[in-house]
Write a structure and sequence with these properties.
Strand content: 5-15%
Largest sheet: 3 strands, antiparallel
Strand order of the largest sheet: 2-1-5
Helix content: 25-40%
Radius of gyration: 15 Å
Oligomer: single chain
């Protein structure tokens, strides 16, 4: 396991009303956080929560709209995305330990980490086979669009 991450932190729990939690203790990476929120969008999730400590469910993302395209009628549209949980389409009766998914993946490469997690979820039967790479292509398109938007803002300034 990589330095700075406690084993107990890598737990994803799906429970009624089908909420997906990613717990990170004493470590945070803004790029990884952005990738995870894009994964949430690929899941078709309505909202997302990034839990910064395994046993303290405090939100470290204050507004999803800074990362995602939130517009009326969109799947993420909500009167208040600040205090809601990521609602993922997972089996509500199970809990999954993602330590195996994170092992040997450089933390500096959040894209590889996300792919490893998605592939692990496929192998565990949580998501349908073939979805991981499909979602990753979707995430790549969103990333390119976000980067282009950032470049446009920089040029305007």
């Amino acid at each position: 396991m990589a330095d700075g991450i406690e084993d107990a932190a890598w737990t994803v729990v799906a429970a009624p009303p089908i909420e997906l939690y990613i717990g990170l203790s004493a470590w945070r990476d803004a790029q990884l956080e952005r990738h995870w929120l894009l994964v949430a969008r690929a899941y078709g999730a309505r909202t997302a929560t990034w839990i910064h400590a395994a046993n303290r469910p405090e939100l470290s993302i204050t507004n999803l709209s800074q990362y995602l395209d939130v517009s009326p009628g969109h799947a993420f549209d909500s009167p208040d995305v600040t205090d809601l949980h990521l609602i993922a389409r997972l089996d509500a009766s199970c809990a999954y330990d993602l330590r195996a998914a994170a092992d040997a993946v450089p933390l500096c490469n959040s894209r590889d980490w996300v792919l490893r997690v998605l592939e692990w979820l496929e192998a565990a039967g949580v998501i349908a086979l073939g979805l991981a790479r499909l979602w990753l292509r979707h995430i790549d398109r969103l990333e390119r669009r976000l980067d282009a938007d950032d470049d446009d803002e920089s040029d305007a300034n």
